[in-house]
Amino acid sequence: MPQSNTWQASAAAMQASAWWVGFALVVGVMGAALISPLYALYQQAWQLRASDISMLYVLYMCGGLCALLFLGRLPDRIGFQRVLLCFLLLTLVGTLISMLAWNLPSLIVGRFMVGVASSLITISATTGLTVLAASGSTRLRPQRVAMVASFLNVLGFGLGPLIGGMAGQWLPQPLMMAYVAPLVLGCAGVVAIALLKLPQSASQAAQLPGRLQWQDCQPRLTWPQREDSLAFILTCGYPFVAFGVFGLYASMAPLFLQQMIPWSGPVVIGTAIAVILLVSAFIQLVAARLALHRCGFTGMALLVTSNGMLVVNLQMGSILLFVLGVSLTALGHGMCMLAGMTMVGRIAGPDNRAGMLSTYQTIGLLGSMLPMMAVGWIADHWGIQVAVTVFACFVMVLGSVLGLAFVRHPRMRAKPEA
Known about the structure:
By secondary structure, the protein is mostly helical. The chain folds into two domains: 11-207, Up-down Bundle (Growth Hormone, Chain: A), CATH 1.20.1250; 220-418, MFS general substrate transporter like domains (Growth Hormone, Chain: A, Up-down Bundle), CATH 1.20.1250. The chain is 78% helix and 0% strand. The protein has helices at residues 2-29, 39-46, 50-70, 74-78, 80-100, 104-134, 145-170, 174-177, 180-194, 200-206, 229-256, 266-286, 292-316, 319-347, 353-382, 384-408, 410-413. The relative contact order is 0.14.
């Protein structure tokens, strides 16, 4: 009987640990996209150009990319709890700097910190959930960790723009007040992780002394064998397009929506971004049983269609077209990401899976950076409407080529190995 009580107490403690790690993941990434609905307010307050907004977004994404490339192995080396705690603190510092920012360079510093921190929080929290699930003391099955972590990650990213949009719409001094909730919740996350009691197996790994070597910070990007090169190129094209389309809404939406629909305040923009993220996560669960080539083709076709509707709506200014376009963007984004991640899993082997996944994610992040730099530059010279039109046409052409090639490639149509 005492042993049974001890086991139940241990299981309850591990269950609580998993909940707190999940909570830290949600609040840790909440500030990442919070700023998106506020870009128009920053533009008005500081007289920023469209290229300044795009640069702010790109440098935030650059922080995430640098963390992915150079720091992604930290949780495996020094333990997920230490890494999660350190980068929760970093995101608090970055959020505080963003809150108190007095000009564009100071805001860039804060956003870059948040970008670095959000990537490492995602990686370390996912590692932590994996460790806790492997202990067998939680109800979380190891094979479902990736799905749960992905959902919590999207939930945190989605809540951010909702909070930012509501603050920008209704609160006084929105460029400061919008950051209060992430700061308060982030402090709670720091306390929770600092006081976290891990199972013995996880605790041993977390308490190992750091044995970092310079090789641990080298990017680990790999490419598949020659026969899979074309399939991998097509696969990597999917996050490039999907991240780019989302990046347009996350960075430029406050600038072009006010020309498209009559009520385009921060709360509308924040809701649109949150819908794209949350619906994207939901559709990945629903479409998981769909044949890979059909899933990929349908997702890309939806993104192509939504961008065509965006071009039309720049002239028409229809609320219905806007809602429909955002919905198709969300569905297409989710199906493209599902098809891409599934295909990476099929192409990669045990010896190169991590490196190929890093390559895939790096190309996706570049898709949210390079096009946005071009959009900002074009908007400065010829206006935001021309810039959005050029971007949408680029997506329609590239997406059509990728979608048709993806659905016809024999590697995508092959049945997965048992």
